[in-house]
Amino acid sequence: MELTLLGAARTVTGSMYLLSEGDAHILLDAGMFQGEMEEASRDPLPLPASRIQAVILTHAHQDHIGRLPMLVRQGFRGEIFSTAATRDLARIMLLDAAHVQEEDLYYENRRRARAGLPPLEPLYELEDVLETFRLPWHEVPYGQTMTAGPFTFTFRDAGHILGSAFVEFETPRRLVFSGDLGNRDKPIVRDPDAPVLKDPEAVFLESTYGGRNHRPFTETRREFLQAIQETLDRGGNVLIPTFALERAQEILYVLREFKETGDLPASVPVFLDSPLAIDATRIFLAHPECFDREALEVHRARGRSLFQLPGLQFTRSVRASQRINEVDGGAIILAGSGMMSGGRIKHHLKHHLWKEQTGLVVVGYQARGTLGRKIVEGAREVQIFGEPVAVRARVYTINGFSAHAGQNELLAWSDRFENRPRIFLVHGEEDQMEILRDRLIARGHRVDMPHYRETLLF
């Protein structure tokens, strides 16, 4: 059996692994590259897409599903396996990505034309997304064993986002892929399951935060509340770049609690300025089977009010989004994208980033090469829509909202494997991987850090 890493090797994006056994070929995840490696999404596959028999998806983040319509465009017509929640979320995520790509490519090709360069072809178009959902797509519950060709596998709850899974392969080789493991004690979704397969030959372990731990979530809530209160006291707006999937819903959940306890005045307006996040919130409410006990109790008692709070406004239209800029201070604005590389948050940054009273609350990972990473690393000035914008806002970086497990959680999860299997670190930047590697080796594990497009034999 061969396994080729087609992404998430010494980087946190582009998760895609090709598993081959004789003439049988399947993919685990089909993620888009982001940040500095964005162009790697165009790298050719090592075999025609028509020869891939199945794709198994761990969850619906773009760095795990974003190249799926590209495979369809190139001829993939096989089966797709995911949880039901992942399928529902993947549909809105990929439709949105097709629209964003169309807009971005229009402006990029205008720039290339002025530079005398040939135009770029889209990775995929809207019809490719629609064709993706016409393929045989299996909605797989946690704990149910499935078969794709010679590959037998089971989903377990990864506790990362709604519907996320890690995957245990029992044939033809006993392998475990962590997907993205969740941070414990977070609201809405359950904590990650412990592995059931105790003696795999190898484990592919994410390492996004392999070098450090997160604060307890109770501290994160206090830090988040303080950042909001300080900004409101200065008379500024609170800008929260928000990933549409999971992070937006988690922030709404916590803001509802703040208003219910009186920590925030009910009169403070809250804008969810992201059509995609609004759609994702609707899907969350349709999948209470993924909720933890506390969220399930709230859902059963209140239904849709799981994410409803006084002063909340959903803004779908461009005009409604533009009107938010008329609010000079005292509002909380959640807008995509989470890494500030596109979407409506860039318009809000253009209007408010240069104001000292503004509070920019960063609650998610910022990949290298993104606008968000530049701001978090202390840039005094950034380019937004081709114009220089001073960074005078106070920037609050609150990592405890991360949906990824911290170092101690990754170590504890790895220790569940009784036979101390070979561990391959993936989905992490090299500095984080190296720290986690040393900690794992000290605990008796054998550890490798494979490279992009490297092929492993089992």
What does this structure look like?
With 458 residues, this protein is an alpha/beta fold. The chain folds into 2 domains: 2-212 and 403-457, 4-Layer Sandwich (Metallo-beta-lactamase, Chain A), CATH 3.60.15.10; 217-401, 3-Layer(aba) Sandwich (Rossmann fold), CATH 3.40.50.10890. Helix content is 31%, strand content 20%. It is built from 13 helices and 22 strands. The protein has helices spanning 62-65, 68-73, 84-114, 126-132, 217-233, 247-261, 275-285, 293-302, 318-324, 345-352, 371-376, 407-414, 430-442, and strands spanning 2-5, 17-21, 24-28, 54-56, 79-82, 137-139, 145-148, 151-157, 165-171, 175-177, 202-206, 238-241, 270-273, 312-314, 332-335, 359-362, 381-384, 387-390, 394-397, 422-426, 446-448, 455-457. The strands form 4 sheets. The chain has a 7-stranded mixed sheet. The chain has a 7-stranded mixed sheet with strand order 7-8-9-10-11-20-21, with helices on one face. It has a 6-stranded parallel sheet with strand order 14-13-15-12-16-19, sandwiched between helices. Strand 8 (151-157) and strand 9 form a beta hairpin. The model has no long low-confidence stretch (mean pLDDT 95).
Mean pLDDT rating: 95
Q: How many independent structural domains?
A: 2
Radius of gyration: 22 Å
- At the fourth level of CATH, the homologous superfamily of the largest domain is Ribonuclease Z/Hydroxyacylglutathione hydrolase-like
Main sheet: strands, sense, barrel = 7 strands, mixed
Tell me the distance between the termini: 5 Å
What's the CATH topology name of the largest domain? Metallo-beta-lactamase, Chain A
